Automatic annotation (TrEMBL):
<protein>
    <submittedName>
        <fullName>ABC transporter ATP-binding protein</fullName>
    </submittedName>
</protein>
<feature type="transmembrane region" description="Helical">
    <location>
        <begin position="219"/>
        <end position="246"/>
    </location>
</feature>
<dbReference type="InterPro" id="IPR003439">
    <property type="entry name" value="ABC_transporter-like_ATP-bd"/>
</dbReference>
<dbReference type="InterPro" id="IPR017871">
    <property type="entry name" value="ABC_transporter-like_CS"/>
</dbReference>
<feature type="transmembrane region" description="Helical">
    <location>
        <begin position="114"/>
        <end position="138"/>
    </location>
</feature>
<dbReference type="Pfam" id="PF00005">
    <property type="entry name" value="ABC_tran"/>
</dbReference>
<dbReference type="Pfam" id="PF00664">
    <property type="entry name" value="ABC_membrane"/>
</dbReference>
<keyword id="KW-1133">Transmembrane helix</keyword>
<feature type="domain" description="ABC transporter">
    <location>
        <begin position="397"/>
        <end position="637"/>
    </location>
</feature>
<keyword id="KW-0812">Transmembrane</keyword>
<dbReference type="InterPro" id="IPR011527">
    <property type="entry name" value="ABC1_TM_dom"/>
</dbReference>
<dbReference type="InterPro" id="IPR003593">
    <property type="entry name" value="AAA+_ATPase"/>
</dbReference>
<keyword id="KW-0547">Nucleotide-binding</keyword>
<dbReference type="InterPro" id="IPR036640">
    <property type="entry name" value="ABC1_TM_sf"/>
</dbReference>
<dbReference type="GO" id="GO:0005524">
    <property type="term" value="F:ATP binding"/>
</dbReference>
<keyword id="KW-0472">Membrane</keyword>
<feature type="region of interest" description="Disordered">
    <location>
        <begin position="1"/>
        <end position="37"/>
    </location>
</feature>
């Protein structure tokens, strides 16, 4: 599978650069020497593999084109055929015309014949012009369509992928390439393929003309391109390798640039005086990047041209031979004109063939990443026969000996965690930073699957349900909630798509979250745009945004409510109000919330205390205080600070 090798290379590439662009050396490692073939045999082998790989990529593109539009695909194929033959036909007409003129001048030809030929020429030119115009239209429309189709495919696929894919840095590169680079690649691949076919037709028909005169000439024309061909394919793959190596550097440059140009970072950048430093890092990374690109581009073109001269030499040789033959009277003047233009055409088409092929080769490598991306399968999927959720879901949650490690992590984020939450119970999860609280929630939402153990909802392992149906039973607010650049109503309504237009429900959710009072004061009430991306957008404070996110969580009438530090940005009054109301708000729902503030935690019916992934204490506030363990220690610590 080509994708595996590519992925390995990608992994190598990612690990060869410093981890952040913020400090450290600014260089891009050379593509590994063992990636370059050493002797002729190895090169020949590589060339064959490359050609085979590229040719194999072609059906994918043809099927993409066909799916985008069958009539336009046929139109383009036909016009490619026509435009490929045009140079040969034109050259042949020019020969006929010259011979007719020479004959007429010599007194043994008719002017009628000249008129006939000219009319025929006019016909060919008109047909060519029409076919070119049609091709341009079809090609442009097809390009738009294909780019849209692929962007749509990438988006649709990304929406299906696991959270794991988004949280890994390797897949981040892949996602970036698939969404930014790849959409235009099939189109370039198609264009390259078309020009390749067109040139191949011209080439073949011209060579056929040459063969009909002198097979040796044809052989010279055929052999000359080979060296240039090899050098081009070598540099094509180097360019791609470099692009791979550069991708992490580019990512760091994007990051540096966003640190300086994004509103959220501007405050810190200014206060810590980081602006000049970051700009300078960016500039130096950019210079290194540019130097590498320049070196490759120059070498590639200079070496390519040098080899290309061989073809030029062959072309000139042909021209000289034909001219001498004409002088000797063995060929007509028309023949001379024909062969001269044939020589030029063969030469140009040789270059065209290189360009077409190397273009296809490079695009195909990018396409591999696209298909590799589209080929990644989400691990969290519905079983073949998903179990129907009980109706109604009561919200009985049970963790049985659940362990979980993040992919690639040495330490387990959760280790043998067991607990039970009865329907309608309100449970607080506490513990020091990194104890595994958010991880526990991610597992319950089935954003990840446990490495060991089981999570049950109403007595059934949650893996037996369709994940989408399961998530419909959960309403959640995460620590890093989203601030949508949309109106206040949209920001809340997105919590339950079916209620996006249900203003009454949106207002009710805002009231429950304590956000209503502020939103009603906005210039256009709930229709006011929030965020600075829009004209007249309103900037909310951190706590106000959090209340909007909470309102979004309340939009969904789900039996399980999950709140990850829901009041971290709220003022003391708002926090108190929320927790005073939480019992009523969460009535009949199983509620799980994470909090670092013990004053709010003590109201929970049950408290789970996590320590380094292990559930070390659980019970009510009074029980845990009586136990005199870690919970009691931390509670006393916080209380003392207040006192
Ligand atoms: N996407 C991830 N990939 C790898 N490791 C992760 C990932 N997310 C969290 N971790 C690790 O898992 C452990 C538990 O993280 P978690 O976010 O569950 O902690 P938490 O208890 O919610 O912490 P906090 O109170 O700071 O929010 C941490 O050691 C963290 O480094």
């Amino acid at each position: 599978m080509p994708g595996t090798g590519l992925r390995k290379r990608l992994r190598k590439a990612s690990s060869t650069v410093p981890d952040s662009g913020l400090t450290g050396p600014i260089d891009i490692p050379d593509p590994k020497q063992d990636d370059q073939p050493k002797d002729l045999r190895a090169r020949w082998h590589r060339l064959r593999t490359n050609v085979a790989g590229t040719v194999r990529g072609l059906p994918r593109v043809i099927s993409l084109t066909w799916r985008a539009s069958p009539p336009m695909t046929i139109l383009i194929a036909l016009s490619t055929l026509i435009s490929g033959l045009v140079p040969t036909v034109t050259a042949y007409i020019a020969k006929l015309l010259l011979d007719a003129v020479v004959a007429a001048v010599a007194g043994h030809g008719s002017t009628n014949r000249i008129v006939e030929i000219t009319l025929f020429q006019l016909g060919v030119f008109t047909l060519t012009a029409l076919s070119t115009a049609l091709t341009n239209v079809a090609q442009q429309l097809l390009q738009e369509r294909m780019t849209l189709t692929i962007r749509h495919q990438v988006m649709a696929h990304a929406a299906k992928l696991d959270l794991e894919f988004f949280e890994g840095s390797e897949s981040y590169d892949l996602l970036r390439q698939a969404s930014q680079e790849a959409p235009s690649r099939p189109v370039s691949m198609m264009t390259s393929a078309l020009s390749l076919v067109r040139t191949a037709i011209t080439f073949a028909s011209m060579v056929a003309l040459l063969v009909s005169v002198n097979p040796l000439l044809a052989a010279v024309a055929l052999l000359a391109p080979i060296p240039a061909f090899i050098s081009q394919s070598k540099y094509g793959s180097r360019a791609f390798m470099l692009a791979l190596y550069i991708s992490p550097i580019r990512r760091r440059m994007d990051y540096l640039s966003s640190l300086v140009t994004t509103d959220t970072y501007a405050k810190e950048t200014k206060v810590f005086g980081l602006g000049d430093y970051l700009v300078d890092r960016f500039r130096r990374l950019g210079q290194t990047y540019y130097a590498r690109e320049r070196k490759l581009t120059t070498t590639r073109n200079v070496v390519g041209t040098a080899w290309g001269l061989l073809s030029t030499l062959a072309g000139s040789g042909i021209a000289l031979y034909i001219a001498l033959e004409a002088v000797a009277g063995r060929l007509t003047i028309g023949d001379l004109a024909l062969y001269t233009s044939a020589a030029t055409a063969v030469q140009t088409s040789v270059q065209g063939l290189f360009n077409g092929f190397t273009g296809m080769y490079e695009n195909n490598l990018y396409l591999d990443t696209l298909y590799q991306f589209l080929g990644t399968r989400p691990g969290i999927t519905a079983p073949s026969r998903p179990r129907a959720l009980p109706s109604p879901v009561r919200g009985h949650v049970e963790f049985r000996d659940v362990s979980f490690s993040y992919p690639g992590a040495d330490e387990a984020a959760l280790d043998g965690v067991s607990f039970e939450i009865r329907p309608g119970e309100t449970v607080a999860v506490v513990g020091r930073n990194g104890a595994g609280k958010s991880t526990l929630i991610k597992l319950l939402c089935r954003l990840y699957d446990p490495t060991a153990g089981r999570i049950l909802l109403d007595g059934t392992d949650i893996r037996e349900f369709d994940p989408d149906e399961l998530r419909a039973q959960i309403s959640a607010m995460f620590q890093d909630y989203v601030t949508y650049q949309g109106t206040a109503a949209e920001n809340i309504g997105l919590g339950q798509l079916s209620g996006l237009d249900d203003r009454e429900r949106i207002v009710d959710s805002a009231r429950r979250a304590g956000a209503a009072e502020r939103l009603e004061r906005l210039p256009k009430g709930y229709d006011s745009p929030l965020g600075r991306w829009f004209d007249q957008g309103v900037s909310l404070s951190g706590g106000e945004w959090q209340k909007v996110a909470l309102a979004r969580a309340f939009m969904r009438d789900a039996p399980v409510l999950i709140l990850d530090e829901p009041t971290s940005a709220l003022d003391a009054q708002a926090e108190h109000d929320l927790f005073a109301r939480l019992r009523a708000l969460a009535a009949g729902r199983t509620t799980l919330y994470i909090s670092h503030r013990f004053s709010t935690v003590r109201q929970a019916e049950k408290i789970l205390f996590l320590e380094r992934g292990k559930l070390v204490e659980q019970g009510t506030h009074d029980e845990l205080m009586a136990l005199g363990g870690q919970y009691a220690d931390l509670f006393t610590l916080q209380a003392a600070a207040y006192a």
